[in-house]
Amino acid sequence: MLEITPTHYLVLSAGLFMIGVIGVMVRRNIIIIFMSIELMLNAVNVNLAAFSQQWQHVTGQVFAVFVIAVAAAEAAVGLGIILAFYRNKETVNIDEMNVMRW
Amino acid sequence: MAEAIVFYGLAALILGFAVLVISTRNTVHSALYLVVNFLLVAMLYVMLGAEFLAAIQVLVYAGGIVVLYLFVVMLVNLKRPPETHQDPRRQTRLGLALASALLAELAAIIVYSATGESAPAATAAAAAGADIAGGNVEQIGMLLYTNYLIPFEVASMLLLVAMIGAIVLAKREL
After folding, report:
1. Is B167 helix (H, G, I), strand (E, B) or coil?
2. Nearest-CA distance from B167 to chain A in Å?
3. Most C-beta atoms within 10 A of its C-beta, which of A6, B80, B153, B161?
């Protein structure tokens, strides 16, 4: 228990990812849902950094940089969509976002 | 010993603040807890020897993305909280069954990986000629501009497209 192995980091990352999934499932506010997605991406990055340390190779960290770039792009576009939607419907509740539901 | 104490402390704080992010009523508080969570994860990166990643985490996540979130929370003026109305189609039983199945799977994975033989040590990889010379930033830059040059360019293209898309979406009329 006292020696910190990559398994410890993987369990922590799994926990962080699960909290993100719970946030996406449970909350109705779309901004909080986006924050939960950021939490999940962070969990993935912890995973990549842990493996990078285990193999003493920085490829994992390079991929983590790519994940961060994708997360930034996703946040920009997602928040733009939220703003555009809010301008039309005056709500951020995902239960009321059913324009494309058949 | 010291590493274990730091790791468990950081892990507890990270998970605690993550729970606060998804459980707080006030969206602004949620964003602020998210900042603390990102900073703690950056400390975890330092522990893992990924200093460049820690710096990027602080700059891009805590400095950039969360500010974006705060701007949107301010622009989206919430007169009535979105959580008030109940979803009539909520399927509690099915959700409970699926959640317990997922919990059982996760527990099985953790028990299996904890009792199985430990992963091959890092020395094997280090002996296999991994390039560990130079600083962390130097190594990442070297890899990013040689082996991963095309993904790097694609990522820059993606950021450009996202920037244009965000402007088009957020603009009132073009």
Report:
1. helix
2. 7
3. A6
